[in-house]
Design goal:
This protein is an all-beta fold. It has 3 domains: 77 residues, no CATH class; 51 residues, no CATH class; 194 residues, Leucine-rich repeat, LRR (right-handed beta-alpha superhelix). It is 2% helix and 31% strand. The structure holds zinc ion (ZN) (4 copies). One zinc ion binds next to loops.
């Protein structure tokens, strides 16, 4: 280190000695050269520079004429080399280690599992009419394969009710009666079916009768009969008026996707029916078609039905938000605006009903005869309740006395 006494303090403010009140007006810097302090991966360095040993001021020149802060040499950052320790596979994560070639610093990086790259599903076992098939696909990387069942095909009947694939013959219940149906153009287009002299409690309807499709259930066709099940393989389009009226042993009401309309009173008083399932095409429900279903527990409506919805196990007219029919498990959706006439009429299973605040009308006999309905809540205020229109005998013979308010 060479100490030299050269130069003058040019800026009194810079000179610590002057500031400390030494009174020396002409402080002379004594500079020493500080060699470069090299930067590391993570810390800045300083370039070589001159510094006064007395006052600490720094200069770019030995004579101390040009004050200047020393040049900062920025940290270099790590110089990482990567090494794959374990490779990621379809199902397991891998590990890569990065090591700094300069300082030896190490960091590890988890490489996520890649997931399988499955090809498309391929049939390995063809489905049959009644049995499921199987499909399989495998991973292009690891070969892992997975399988899933494919749906049975179902039978496809020819006009003589024989399956064109498997040869199975479908026999309709003996004794059923058939009547010709004419289309709007006046032409004969198929048949309607009715009980006739059939005595079976489980009725089976075949797709065709004498080579023509069975298209409908005759008006009053099974009225007051003791059938327990009605199984149709026909593409029924209409269920006639009173078709199943008073079938007190019928266990379920199934309207397949082909059914477009249900006539007035068609299922009135089917007091044993526990389920109602509505297909995608139903667009017309006649008056009192589903009234007086004492045991109804579940209502299901195809998601594809544009006219009706089955939210909360209720039958709802989408356009109006009107609840047409309820059952024991109904939870009235909050968008409902009206409870239709006789919607829960004589339902003996429902124990609790909660009416949304938006309901403005309760129809005639809507909760008439709900003998298990002990709790009835209206989510609006008591004042709003006064404004709700209530049809005649809307709660006659229902189990609850007072309406609860909440909301
Ligand atoms: Zn100085
Ligand atoms: Zn480093
Ligand atoms: Zn894989
Ligand atoms: Zn078949």
């Amino acid at each position: 280190m060479s100490v030299q006494r050269v130069g003058y303090c040019l800026l009194a403010a810079v000179c610590l000695l002057c500031l400390s009140g030494c009174g020396e007006k002409e402080h002379r810097h004594e500079t020493v050269y500080l060699a470069e302090h090299s930067p590391t991966c993570t810390e800045d360095g300083l370039a070589g520079h001159w510094m006064c040993v007395t006052c600490g001021a720094t200069f770019s020149d030995e004579a101390g004429k040009y004050p200047a802060p020393p040049e900062v040499l920025p940290a270099l950052g790590h110089n990482l080399a990567s090494e794959e320790v374990t490779s990621a596979t379809c199902e397991e994560a891998g590990l890569t280690r990065h090591t700094c070639l300069r300082c030896g610093y190490e960091e590890e990086e988890i490489i996520p599992a890649t997931g399988h790259l499955f090809g498309s599903w391929e049939c390995v076992l063809s489905p049959k009419c009644e049995t499921a098939g199987e499909e399989s696909r495998s991973c292009a990387w690891c070969g892992t394969s997975e399988t899933r069942p494919s749906d049975p095909l179902g039978h496809e009947y020819s006009e003589d009710n024989v399956c064109i694939r498997c040869g199975k013959q479908l026999l309709a219940s003996p004794g059923l009666a058939y009547a010709p149906v004419t289309g709007a153009d006046g032409n004969f287009k198929g048949y309607s079916v009715s009980l006739g002299t059939a005595t079976a409690s489980e009725i089976v309807v075949a797709p065709y009768y004498e080579g023509m499709p069975v298209l409908s259930v005759e008006a009053a066709g099974f009225q007051n009969s003791s059938i327990t099940r009605f199984v149709s393989y026909a593409e029924l389009e209409t269920i006639g008026e009173d078709a199943f009226r008073g079938c007190t042993a019928l266990l379920s009401i199934d309207l397949p996707d082909s059914v477009v309309s249900v006539g007035d009173g068609a299922f009135y008083g089917c007091s044993a029916a526990e389920t109602l399932s509505v297909g995608s095409s139903l667009g017309e429900v006649g008056r009192a078609a589903f009234f007086n279903l004492q045991s109804l527990e579940v209502i299901e409506v195809s998601k594809d039905n544009a006219v009706y919805a089955g939210d909360g196990s209720c039958l709802i007219e989408r356009e109006t938000g009107k609840l047409l029919l309820g059952c024991a498990s109904s939870v009235i959706p909050d968008y409902i605006t009206e409870i239709a006439d006789f919607a829960f009429f004589n339902n003996e299973g429902i124990s609790e009903a909660v009416l949304p605040a938006g309901v403005s009308r309760i129809g005639l006999g809507a909760f008439y005869g709900c003998t298990s309905l002990t709790e009835f809540t209206y989510l609006g205020s008591e004042e709003a309740w006064e404004g709700v229109e209530k049809g005649k005998e809307w709660k006659e013979f229902a189990a609850f006395q007072d309406v609860r308010f909440g909301g």
